[in-house]
Design brief:
9 helices, 8-stranded parallel sheet, single chain, two-stranded antiparallel ribbon, TIM Barrel, 10 strands, alpha/beta, about 290 residues
Length: about 290
Amino acid sequence: MILIDTHAHLDYTNFDSDRPQVLTRATETEVKEMISIGTHLESSARAVELANNFPNVWATVGIHPSEADTATENFIDTLRQLAANPRVVAIGEIGLDYHRLPSLEISPKPGDVFAATVSVDPGTLTAKIADDDYKNKQAIVFREQLDLAVELNLNVVIHQRDAWDDTIAILDDYTGKLRGVFHCFGGTLDQANQILAMGHLVSFTGIVTFKNAREVQATVQGVPLDQFMVETDCPYLAPVPHRGKRCEPAFTRLVAEKIASLRGIPLEEVALATTATARRFFNFTRQG
């Protein structure tokens, strides 16, 4: 049996003390391959370095929407250079994230597994302008990276949070030019079907093991078996029984086990399907 963790932040400092052991534990639980995801230029460079050093690690390069303000004037040139490495299998993670707009304050919302924010009265025109500037910057950086993906014939890893309509509208312009995977998908089955109809995929994390994640559990049961992948998003979102602790690629197996249980099928069937989907989507090629 082979599982692939399609979304891990292996370059993060959370793994500095025991990274080789983390990768070994993943292999011991049948997680044979992992994709280290870039979130800004430095993170992307580190992801490529990890992929060069560990044969079972691949990399993506990209600017996370929350890092859009860090994008330099020539950031696309840098990403292009990084993406020339044969260990790079996608552009990402990229997208839109309106979770912490300038006019929002952090406050937990009961029942929200993401501990979402709630809006406060913007009060002034200045706050609205700040929000619009923030969104526009993200959209520009998103589109530039989508253009790069088309240029390089690479697929994309999509981050979408509290920005559904705008994300779909932008991706609609790229229909037939590239495919994306909506990572850490937590939406409804109708939303998943909308994505699939556009030619994209979804990917599920340890959230599927949470007791209060009934909506995403229902989505897991309804999405066709060959239209989704599994991931950890480590070091975040550790599945039960490790919730609240550091997540790591080995926990991909727990995600797959929960999906198998929800669908009433053997774990091996989930592993076979999600691994095949990941290999098609990311077009893994071994370099001798």
